[in-house]
């Protein structure tokens, strides 16, 4: 089985990470994730 993310899911993951990085401090991000 291929468990790699599709290109679309990878882009979504990258966008979410950037959003969380820009909006929340490290401690808050760790609590969310």
TrEMBL record:
Protein name (Swiss-Prot/TrEMBL): Acyl-CoA dehydrogenase/oxidase N-terminal domain-containing protein
